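User: Some background: our group keeps a shared notebook of sequences we're curious about, and every so often someone picks one and asks for a predicted structure to add to the entry. Today it's my turn. The entry only has the sequence so far, pasted here. Could you supply the structure so I can complete it?
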Amino acid sequence: MNLFAILHKSVVPHKLPLSLELRALRQSFDIQYQTTKENLKPQLIEHANQQLTFLGKPSTALVLSTLTDWLIKTARHHLSAWIYHLSVENNLAFTGLSIRQQRTLWGSCTAKKRINLNYKLLFLPRDLTEHIILHELCHTVHFNHSRHFWDLLKQLDPQCQQHRHQLKTAHLFLPPWVKMG
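Assistant: Of course. Here's the predicted structure to add to the notebook entry:
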């Protein structure tokens, strides 16, 4: 017996996303919603064909919370590999990485060379995400925004000035249900 019934579009709250565009990963996902006959913990299942299926009660709060958890897990996987690669390639060591849900920052670096990256970086274009990762890695050498810091970042990212300008409106890449600031 099938435990799932596909929801009719009229039952799915209109604010729920039907897709995700993760520009930093160059991936897009379509989202389907299915409800269970029992009140089970909501799940998000990732299929090989860039499809996500939400299983559970389709309340806006539950869906967005489940999607955010999935995005943080996805960011942890992809951004960890990305920052490690850039760290080795540029000989910029860091001591640890956290993926967070920061409200106003794309990333940060502590005096102990621990880097924090916002999961929302997944929504930005790939070059802007890489710029932010390089920016935080440069703080492992120069824990300030001195001329030496900017010279290092410009050496690693020749389009640094353009990227800095683009970051002023980068929040526009976020879907409406994801807020920054």
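Suggested note for the entry: Residues 1-13 have pLDDT under 50 and may be disordered. The beta strands are 4-6, 19-22, 27-36, 43-47, 51-55, 96-100, 107-109, 114-118.
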